[in-house]
Amino acid sequence: MGAALNAVYNNFLTAYTPKPLTRYDTHKKSELRSVYNSIVKINRDSPWYLPTTSRDTQRYAVDLKENARELHNTIAQLGGLEKDGLFSKKNAYSTNDDVATAVYIGSESSATDIPDFELEVKSLASPQENLGLFLPEGKTALAPDTYSFDIGVIDMNYEFQFAVGENETNREVQERLVRLINNSEIGIRASLVESENRTALRLTSESSGLPGGREQIFHVSDSHTSKTSGTVDYFGLDYVSRKASNANFLINGEAHSSTSNHFTYDKRFDVKLTGVSPQEETTRIGLKTDVESLTDNVFHLVGGYNEFVKAASSYLESQSKSKQLVREMMGIASVYGVSMGAVGLNMEQDGTLAIDQDVLHETAVRSEDINETFGYLKNFSKMLLRKSDQISLNPMEYVEKVVVAYKNPGHNFISPYVTSAYSGMLFNGYC
């Protein structure tokens, strides 16, 4: 049951507001207990209101929750969850982002005298791709029957069964197979390729590289399947049009290989390969100066704030209470408006913050004590963190609702009503 609900939730987020997961989306038992206690408190005092049935309103509520989570994670990545850790985060640099980007993941205490290193990328890791036969869009030549085929991924084998009707076309069957494979979430993505009024199935592995000396990431066969065979040959599903390959690169002249374009170096740098190095040219990766790291952190904080305000503002015409949320966010920023303006952060009419890079950089360079000069940003971040947590717990606070009755003060009971109504938005379109 848990796996099914997880699939539904992921499907919903993919269609509405896909947000990447980070290490800050995992929590300790104590943190989960705190969230639960907060929900109980909200439910105890919340009035009864009519369920929200509008799909637009439901999407708005889910967007609020997910965008609040992303703002929380942005601040967390800057050290905002640690005491006196905000803006102490060191940042890495790369002399050529078209070849590689890097993030510093080491401890801040050991971020002194860390040597730079030279990187030369010979080839990128690539996924396996199978491209089937291009078939006309007319009636399929497969006889009406129930067919099946197997896809083996590493050490796991998956069987797919489907029926072919009397008058179905090749395209209809191919589109069904695309949905069947993608919904299975086995690490293989299916798509339909069109050329000159013909269509073919394309299967691509989500992973790249060949671990353990394997020749293929996945293989397709129907030689030992349980239902009628013949679809693998008919659609050409077993033809490997592009083999998977590992990434090959040099670090300080020493050869390395990786099954992924993402790897960790020296437990200090998280490196992502983005392209092949130009001939006889290396990319230098290392730590930025304190001033550069600080300005980067300010950019990330302001960027997270602006993205949230823009997301909330996109509903101003359709959701009346989104205006309240935008005003509250602007109110938080206006508290520090004078201090922000002095370092090049200026409030725009739409509630976002604009950065004067020259003023920001000059202020950071001339500052005798960076922590004192930019100390107000820590308080600003803490207020944003509290607001994002509040929205995550109860996004329905910013939804126009019809109240049915208020609970009797002092004699009310704990009820799961608020969260069950919100959770129902995730599943009512799929159950």
Descriptive account of the structure:
This protein is an alpha+beta fold and 431 residues long. The chain contains twelve helices and 20 strands. The protein has helices at 2-15, 29-45, 55-77, 170-184, 231-235, 290-313, 322-334, 337-342, 357-366, 370-373, 376-393, 417-427, and strands at 48-49, 92-94, 100-104, 117-123, 129-131, 135-136, 145-153, 156-164, 188-195, 198-205, 218-221, 240-242, 247-251, 254-258, 262-265, 269-273, 283-287, 345-347, 353-355, 403-405. It has a five-stranded antiparallel beta sheet, with no helix packed on it. The protein is globular, with a radius of gyration of 27 Å. The two termini are 13 Å apart.
